[in-house]
Amino acid sequence: MGKKTTVTEENLVIVESPAKAKTIEKFLGKDFLVKSSYGHIRDLSKSDFGVDINNNYQPDYIISSDKKEVVKELKLLAKNAKMVWLASDEDREGEAIAWHLFETLELKEENTRRIVFHEITKDAIQKAIKNPRKIDINLVNAQQARRVLDRLVGFELSPVLWRKVKPSLSAGRVQSVAVRLIVDREREVFAFKPTSSYRVTAIFEVTDDKGRVKELKAELNKRFDTYEQTKAFVEKCSDAEFLVSQVEKKPVKKSPAAPFTTSTLQQEASRKLGFSVAQTMSIAQKLYEAGKITYMRTDSVNLSDLALNMASAQISEMMGPEYVNIRKYKTKAKGAQEAHEAIRPTYLDKDTVAGSAQEKRLYELIWKRTIASQMSDAQLEKTVIHIEAGNTGEKFLATGEIIKFDGFLKVYIESTDNEGEQEENESVLLPPIHEGEVLEMLNVEARQRWSQKPARYTEASLVRKLEELGIGRPSTYAPTISTIQNRGYVEKEDRDGTERHYKHLWLEKGKPVIESEKKEITGAERSKLFPTDIGMVVNDFLVKYFESIVSFDFTAKVEKEFDDVALGNVEWSKSIDEFYKPFHDTVEETLEQSEKSTGERILGVDPASGQQVSVRIGRFGPLAQIGVSSDEEGAEKPRFASLRKGQHLETITLEEALDLFKLPRTLGEFENKVVVIGIGRFGPYIRHDSKFVSLKKGVDDPFEIDLETAIERIKTKREEDLKKIIKEFTEEPDLQILNGRWGPFIKYQKKNFKIPKDKNAEELSLEECKALIEADTKASPKKKTAAKKAATVKKTTATKKATTTKKKTTAKKTK
DNA sequence: CAGTGAGCGAGCTTCCGCTTGACTT
């Protein structure tokens, strides 16, 4: 749409991102028009795999529907340009984009150049223009192999799941491994048996140089396995002498972390700011588009020389030259392609930025991390004081750290995922203590401690694991995490902890030991990824029949193969053929031979009826069942009940399953209508006269509640509802003025309408209400169509994959 | 929103990686 479209330009440069195009255009001057392809412009067609299996896996590429406009414009511009510069990223995907552009725009070799740069700086770009090359067809072929392999795996495997597990499911090289990680971890947690030991700490009294009395906390250098041993030791402490036998001092240095990549940014934003992976990416995108940070999808920890100079100047100015230590970091990530710089502020002299609160916070995080990465090591002195506990043969250790030179710690401290054990990492300043001193004991405390269960994944820690395994790319981490949640394989959830008792011993100077049992809350989870039943069943199915595909090193193996293709040592279609032939055989075999997979577990026998009790995945999710289906005439049908939230096929017990059938429960009658207790999506409820009343949380037990209490709840609900009604009209019972969460509103035929703020709700007449309804429906005709669209989406798709489906429906319409 | 738990079968679902917008209570 730009005005320049019709003008003939000397040079057309095509990059992938429009924001990048804008910046580069400034560097190149008026002879260059810089445009963007918006990523890939073509993809495999969806019919017949988009790949001709019988003809060397010949790909069938079509221009993506949302790229037709872009392609049309680029084609015209390319036709009129004297030279076309393909400046997509220097990695496998970027090379392929260049090649697709070459093919699709019908470019000619003599006036096409391929150029690459890893940083968006004037120097880098001008150097690139001076050093053009040809499209590297081997690298392109490696990308084609990658693309075709992913298509074949995804489009062969998914239909197997439709037949053997449930329709609409999906499997793929990346998502299936992500799910597997989460399922495996859940089972580790389930199998985990905590063991306990006893941790002993003591507080001593110390007088410092100025005569001030201070407390010194120390921990025993061992933990006891049994309560008896612990008690015996604590008792001995009451009259023991505590002698400082050694004061150990050693220098320690700490180094800063590398600048941010996509994955480390996602992790730190999650730990420090509590952002989800998708949130981080969308905020970063905004910062990028505003020119405030460099590109946010990168696996590189490299900073440009320009950035390093800026960092050096900035640190020197803000904190002094002794804080500068310019470093080059090397990536550790498997399969990193390093087409971009690390994520950094565009201008390092800006330590903050205008924008939303979230943008500010993320920017400041990036600024700090970038600056810290170029700062000096922190110099610490670690002190360990050894305190002999009388003649018990044990000793207490007090550790402390003093910072001699703070270095990068002045700006940034990296967080870790460790939960619970933070107190041990606390750095404390120790009072001056000398060897040979005898310390006064104030108290000794011993408490039972339990070993920690394996940590469930957060979105961010899953990304880190995937990156470690070389699975997925910076541009796909966030979408992959959405996919496995949208498919219903995984849920992000909070879980309340459970109460646990622990033993406690307390000894105060000159007093007897106090023994007690205390309570703590343990195992609470916040925003953790849990597998669903369907996720587990699908995973087990894939592991059983397609172990090689969902194995953790599958991607690494095929990447090696792609590397050979990129080097020109192997023909890509041959490499695909070697994989596909046996894979396809397994698919056929599995379709023929495997049973349908429902995750069925037989729990036992129902004592009341003598029938079998089992659980499995049903049409609408996990269910429990009493009895078995039978073809025989007049055979009794089994009874069914859905599993509740938090119950799982794998862990539910016979008793819990039988409990499910106790509801709904009829209590009796009230006002000649039955009162029924049940549990629905929103918890336990009372149903009466086709109205629903929630049970009181934490007070009412759906299995125990009696008719009297239920009636009480119904009555209070009625009173509350009355308060909601502001005005009613006898001539129009469908119309009410109600008090809602956001103030008064009009309810008409089950739809809600706004009341303007300048109107008094109580004084509205029926005519005025109808006028408001009329005005509201007219004012937003879009609302209606949007709602309709949403409804059709809901019909065609079971879960909330609204975004992808919507795109498709609109795409079809515009055709 | 508070249930349902199939084969009278028509046609659809699905992958991974590049990119950005246009959606909504």
TrEMBL record:
EC top class, as a word: isomerase
Renumbered residue ranges of the record's region Interaction with DNA: 170-175
Substrates-to-products reaction catalysed: ATP-independent breakage of single-stranded DNA, followed by passage and rejoining
Matches recorded under InterPro entries: Topo_IA, Topo_IA_2, Topo_IA_AS, Topo_IA_cen, Topo_IA_cen_sub1, Topo_IA_cen_sub2, Topo_IA_cen_sub3, Topo_IA_core_domain
UniProt site positions, description: Interaction with DNA: 40, 146-147, 150, 162, 297, 487
Biased composition (Low complexity): 788-802
Residue ranges annotated for the Toprim domain, each copy included: 10-120
Pfam families: Topoisom_bac, Toprim, Toprim_C_rpt
Location of the Topo IA-type catalytic domain: 136-587
Catalytic residue list: 295 (o-(5'-phospho-dna)-tyrosine intermediate)
Region called Disordered, residue ranges: 778-815
Superkingdom field: Bacteria
EC number: 5.6.2.1
Chain intervals with Basic residues compositional bias: 803-815
Keywords, sorted A to Z: DNA-binding, Isomerase, Magnesium, Metal-binding, Topoisomerase
Subunit structure, as described in the record: Monomer.
Described function: Releases the supercoiling and torsional tension of DNA, which is introduced during the DNA replication and transcription, by transiently cleaving and rejoining one strand of the DNA duplex. Introduces a single-strand break via transesterification at a target site in duplex DNA. The scissile phosphodiester is attacked by the catalytic tyrosine of the enzyme, resulting in the formation of a DNA-(5'-phosphotyrosyl)-enzyme intermediate and the expulsion of a 3'-OH DNA strand. The free DNA strand then undergoes passage around the unbroken strand, thus removing DNA supercoils.
Family assignment from sequence similarity: Belongs to the type IA topoisomerase family.
Matching NCBIfam families: topA_bact
Protein name (Swiss-Prot/TrEMBL): DNA topoisomerase 1
Gene coding for it: topA
